[in-house]
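Hello Y.,

Per our agreement to keep a running log of every chain we model this quarter, I'm adding this entry. I've kept the format consistent with earlier entries: sequence first, then predicted structure.
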Amino acid sequence: MSNLVLYSIPAFLLLIVVEIAWARRHPEAAGYELRDTAASLTMGLGNVFLSAAATLLRVPVYLWIYEHRFFDLPRAWWTWLVLLFAEDLCYYWFHRLHHEVRVLWSTHVNHHSSLHYNLSTALRQPWATPLTGPIFWVPLLLVGFAPEMVLTAQAVSLLYQFWLHTEAIGKLGPLEWIFNTPSHHRVHHGANPAYLDKNHGGIFIIWDRLFRTFAPEIEPVRYGLTKNVGSFHPLRIAFHDMVAMLRQLAAAPGFGARLRVAFGRPSDQLPS
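Predicted structure for the entry above:
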């Protein structure tokens, strides 16, 4: 994990305190619940350690891939600008496929498990995606972006997405056409049928508009999953869908059925 993220943790916690004060004056918001917030913070802490460990494995692999790059790109202002968009496109496909492929969804689902929507939800980070995610950024290395540039761009995206997890900010006018905003990301966290698997972008919403996965915030958002976890225990939150998927794999009648369980859409699976 980039030091940019680690250095931002105190600011994250301070902003959560500020939002708690705001939520107390706005009972119409989903607000905070002590056990839910504690679970989110615990998930975030676990992600910090697991991401750091995964980075020790990822950096040597990234360096090896970079040695086989197709082009040499300078570290100029324009390459950073191109990287900002290119990294976000990689993030879009990482995020989208982690919603549309069951084995990947089982590693990402815990980020959507809260029935509340606040800045602490941003810290409810997955524990397994540090292992399933890195391959999605390999194209950036092959075209010539240095590993440290890619890791920095990923950190910038993660920092940007923190403020999206709030009900305190409404729609932002013309910015909604280009950038991911709290309104767009509230839709992404909705269990409403119209909102499922929508708005996967990180910094920008242009990819969702281009690839037809965009939905505006129209009806009130119902946060959580179509089938909620019903637990605040971090281990249950982190691994409940992996366990359910393994049970379905064991019960599946044959190799083809197992492939459909592992690589089909989560919505196509039997109830877990």
